Every structure is written in structure tokens, then in C-alpha cells.
Amino acid sequence: MKIVAALFASLTATHAFTTTTRTDRVVTTVLSSVSSGANTVETSRKVFLNTLARASTAAIVASVLPETALATGRATLDVTYRRYAPRIRAGGEFYGGDFKQLVKNNDWSGIQAALQEVPERTKKDLNKADSGVAARARQAGEFSDSRVLVAADLFASSFSSQNSVTDKTKKMKAAVASLRSTVSEMNSVVKQASGEDKGGFLGRGKKKVSEAELAQQMRTLYAQGGNAWNEYVFAANENLALQFDKFEYVS
What we know:
Helix content is 53%, strand content 3%. The chain is mainly alpha-helical.
């Protein structure tokens, strides 16, 4: 079933997303394009482990999320929930709150800051005790990959083991992959709006996109990301043990 919603109206109305319930399953759809990018996920053990290793290869991510990257196995669920749930929950609250307003107001600098990743190490950082890791980690945006999506990815892994990947993990990781793709597109739109990305050779050969068009693209991406987030939440909450608080949908 596909539900197509007018995006601008969704951002100015009380609710940004359309939610339907069928036999206790909550499915959010605003744009029919949301589900097309996250239908398939590589499920081999090799790809699964490579995904987990993504966070552990960078010391800076370890600062943002100081816990171990190999958050796998049902025995670790209690630990990983306590580690990653606060970041995931904060990310969702930010996305459906402050970030929504930034998109609505076409606040390009605010959007860019919200999605900003940890800056690269400089020569000055070498003189610091921790090579500047802590200071740079604090510069990660409120909905950056290193602050939110890495945590969401690692938490998804806690419902599987290294030898067996559950459907729950696959669904959660598929939603994270969709979010990563959306955030990447958002960054591209921001660069065009700020003039960083002029396209073509030395800014030639590419028609300049108007701010109105870029604003519409960002609203479309916001709705797409919101749907992906809600798919993640649905998968995470499904059959979640009663001792854990469920995650909230964005609206």
C-alpha cells in the first residue's frame, strides 16, 4: 500500500508523517520512494562483520560512542540498550523537533551543523593529551552519523550473533542504511544551497538550482528520513522485552 502526502503541507501541519495501523503493526509512509531504497540488505556473515567494524576503525567514533563496537549477541542486549538507547532516543527527539524546524525555515547553516561529522585531526591536536579526540567528538552534529546512526547500527546488531543474523537485525540495519543515504543527500543539498557545490567544471556546465527547489528537495528528504526512522523504531520495538522502554516515533 502506498500513501503519497504533500510534503510542504506535512511540515506546516501538526504531524509530518502519516501513520497507519494494521494488526498491531505501525507502518509510516509519506513518500512512496522511501521503501524503494531499503528493501535489500546483504546478509552474509562477512558483510555483517564489516558493518560492525565500521565504528571500531575510527578512534574518533570511539570517543563519541566509547563502548565496544562489537555489540552483538542477545546476552549483551541489556548492556547495549543502556549504552546506545539514550543516543538513539535523543536523535529521534532532535529529528522530529529542532531539525524539523530547521528544515521548515530553510536554515541551511543550522542543517549543516546538525549533520556535521567529526572534523579531521589537525597538527594542533597532536599536542593534546588525547590528540584532540574528545574536543573533536563534541563537534559532531545532533543527527550526525557518528553520534546517532552508528549507535542505531550497533544496537541493531545486539539482536543477533556473529554466526546468525536475525530478521529483526536485518530490518533495523536496512532502516539505518536508508537513513545514511538520506543524510548524504541532505548534505549534498546543503552544499548546493551554501554555494559549496556549484557543479560542473569550476561551477560551469550545470544549471543553478533555485533556493525554492532546494528547499522542496530538503523537505522531501526530511519526510523520507522520518519514514526510515519510524521503520527502525517499529522493528526495534517489535517483541522488545518488557523491561526496556520502547522508542518513540517521529511525527
